[in-house]
Amino acid sequence: MAKTIPMIITNEKILVKDRETNEFKPFSMPAANPSPNIPFYHEFAEKIAEDQYYFKEFMKKIYGGKLSKYIFAIIVPDDTSKLESIFINEFFVNSGACKAVAQMPMALALSKEFDKYISISKSQRNVTLEYVRNNETVVKKYYDIHTCLPQLVLEDAKVLHIDVEYNDIPVFINNFNQNMDEFSDFGEVITPKQFLDKIAVIDVEKL
């Protein structure tokens, strides 16, 4: 049976769970020049073969040479587009560093205790508000980080879906990137450590 390696694509780097220490080690491409408001991994497309080589060598140091038996369980930002998801899949699968790839947005990893909840997160470009039910996103709304008014997000969260309007739905603030100070009073703040603990073991069948 293929083994799973949890990974996270953050606002600035890729984090990979270490086999020996269970800690998450960062991978960043040398000489990368990310642009404002654009995810850093877009830069990989310019030198894709070279970047895939560096990533595979990075994985060899952590997991050895037999990488084809692993599945990457990749946690991506909540505003990742469908085209970006395709690129992420193709980049890692074609790097030769894994057998297959499964993706899940951060919002779906915030709680294992609740079947229904609201998630608020922030990437390099958007604040994302979404309603999660039974491990699926039901409704999602984006706000530009440069013009977003936190109070508006809070008001929208109250009427995001009929379930939310008529039930007591918990709100989780994803502070993994430590950029959610203005939202900290809106719900339960999920710290970086709490988030890492939640995804330390991932069931790929649920992705």
SSE topology string:
EEEHEHEEEEHHEEH
Number of beta-strand segments = 10
Our measurement of the CA-to-CA distance between the termini, rounded to an integer number of angstroms, reads 17 Å
How large a portion of the residues is in β-strands, by DSSP E?
A: 25-35%
Shape: globular
Mean pLDDT: 91
Briefly note the structural class of the backbone.
alpha/beta
Residue share in helices? 10-25%
Low-confidence stretches: none
Spatial order of strands in the largest sheet: 3-2-1-4-5
Keywords summarizing the entry:
single chain; 207 residues; alpha/beta; five-stranded mixed beta sheet; 5 helices; 29% strand
Describe the model.
By secondary structure, this protein is of the alpha/beta class. The chain has five helices and ten strands. It has helices at residues 48-63, 82-93, 150-158, 162-166, 192-199; strands at residues 3-9, 14-17, 24-27, 70-76, 100-105, 116-122, 126-133, 136-144, 171-174, 188-190. The strands form two sheets. It has a five-stranded mixed β-sheet with strand order 3-2-1-4-5, with helices on one face. A five-stranded mixed β-sheet has the order 8-7-6-9-10.
Topology readout:
Layout: E1 3-9, E2 14-17, E3 24-27, H1 48-63, E4 70-76, H2 82-93, E5 100-105, E6 116-122, E7 126-133, E8 136-144, H3 150-158, H4 162-166, E9 171-174, E10 188-190, H5 192-199
Parallel strand pairs: 1-4, 4-5, 6-9, 9-10
Antiparallel strand pairs: 1-2, 2-3, 6-7, 7-8
Short description:
24% of the residues lie in helices and 29% in strands. By secondary structure, the protein is α/β, with parallel strands linked by helices.
